[in-house]
Task: structure prediction
Amino acid sequence: MKQRIEKLANAMSVFGAAHHKWQLAEPWSEDEVRKFEKSHGGALPEQYRRWLLEVGASGAGPGNGLFTPGMLDNGGGPKPWKRRFGPLGKDFPYTAEVDKHAGKLPGAMPVSDLGCGILALLVTAGAERGKIWVDDRANRCGLRPEDGLTFDAWIEAWLTAAEREAKDPWKPAKDHENVPDVVIPASEVVEASALQAFVDQVHAALADGDVVSFGKLGEIRKRGPSLSFQQGKALHDAMDGKALPSGGGTLADVFRALFDQPRWHALEIPGLLRTWVGEDKHVEMRDYLGRTQLVGRAGPFLVVQSVRPSNTR
Result:
């Protein structure tokens, strides 16, 4: 497997290669692995343990690459995960997909970022020990097994897909005409002075923390040098024709105006968000394991682009 990774060194079109660049960190020693296991309260599955000892402690791997054990990074820089996962020796509580899980998740550890806030987990204890699960709780989609794949089978599936992609890059069929966005300044919807005060308040709040909540509307988060918006239930419901709640200040006014605009017209709040309502569509694509999928949306959907504060202030 290590030799196959080395042969893919120039395959930068493969999903995630821009992050891991096909580089592998030095393998861990037996003492380092044992120290990690003791610190996190459980033994690692044998396949993953061998990977750490013989291939690399992090780097090239499924998604955006494999994490250094004990750390995760899904956009905001490496952070310890010990308060969110483990202990590793306590049984993982599930054998089938679940909608949600509250609190610390035992018997599992994050091993890779699959994009869009989705994590790949390695189960370390219980009936699913040694298998890969997908943690999509960041998008309110719960936890699900990754086709029953063990760690080695998961790596093999990823490598096979990467090798195919390197030889035959995916070229999805064009299923709709690309129409240039018509960007509508949010100042046409909300008084400019009130809008600027709102942007300043958000950035001031983000200077003291990573999240600014707007209640039922959603929240704005810092992700490294960028900002992202996670919509709440009220905005999700509004896509189905329900009214937005009263209040919410400037942001609610902007979104309310957005829903009245023709599709693909964008609204921009300088220094904060650029957003639009997209049309129904179905797109064929390959996922990170090379599986062809038809991604469909049942109705209008909200798209919010992040901005980089350093470029806009």
User: Anything to note?
Assistant: The two ends are 46 Å apart (CA to CA). The first strand starts at residue 71 and ends at 72.
